[in-house]
Amino acid sequence: MIQKLEGLVGEGHYCWKRFFSWWFRGAPFEEIHYNNLFEWLAWSMFVENVETLSKKKAKHVKSIIKLLELKLNHKFPMGYNAEVKAVRYTIEPLKICFRPLLLYLAMFIIKTFGDAILYLNGFSWYTTKGFGYWYRSQPKNQTVEGVEDPLPMVYFHGLGTGIVLCLRLVLRLSKGRASFLIEMKHVSPTLTFEAVGHSELPYQIRKILQKHGYSKCSAVGHSFGSVCVGWMVKYIPQTVGQAVFLDPVCFLHWLPDIHYNFLYREPNTMLEWVMSRLVSLEPTISHTLRRQFWWYQNYLDFEHLHCPAVVNLGAKDEVFPAKTVRGYFEMHLQKEDIKAAENLVVLWEPEHSHGRILISKRAQKKLVDSIDAQQRKQAKCNTSWSAREVKQEFPAALFS
Q: Looking at residue 395, what is its pLDDT?
């Protein structure tokens, strides 16, 4: 991770001081003391408090601090600054904002309305272990131009009200192809606290595809859903023929921006207020993010992409650093071979904030055109990158 951050800093896409300041909730870099950093590293490397670290783990943490001081040419002041608080959301007290039962009733009515629309569009509801999904086979009266057998789409929604928030987008994306719409109750206001994580979800999706007669798919994810697509890319790469990331939070997930912006930042705009009060502090979603969301399981690197991919970024995104992610891709495309560049499409929307892709007809058309063009090219060339499964890593192994 340190080497990757060095690369971003070296290319001018990020800076060391911002990295540490934001992991310490906006505290000035100079006010972060040695024991503050030790406390944060104990969490980020081993998901532990300082008091529970073994001597071996503590020695490892000290070696990382020594390395960081060498890289930064900076000595962290000894001691502990009580005014500086680190981001350690998985072991901090759970933060929730209770809301009236009527709100959940309203959410249920909205979801029922969305379910009716999907049913009228030919989708059928199925359940499997841990979650449910909507499925529709390829419509006989619809085709994808230039693609005789388009990849079935597997769509993962983001945080919020579920599929109903994405109806316009998913109905557009599903034209001419078989479609699976995955409903994840643990990231919606449903009071369902059991999450399906990285060790189960990809393999369940593979079973679902096989059940309906498919071996590969086009995996599409918006926001939190991009993490699920990342799990598929890493753990069942042979199943993913194309990956589509919309407002992705999986790339550079080890940067503090996503975690700070969504879980700690005081809202300044209406959209930020909605994301904070109505989404991140909702009991179900807060429990998922603060008790079942581990940064080291959810990141996706450029090197993991083995298949054609489309990435949609909004320059004014409030959740993740879109410009830094764009620079990250540009940095790698300059170093990789021509085939890597040809297999990646980055759609840049200068005026888009987080979630705008869900309602913008123009952006959706550009997205669908890019997805179809990539599948046409893949069908003609029958090309893909070499795919290998990624082994699970403990977070400490990533600090190098």
A: 67
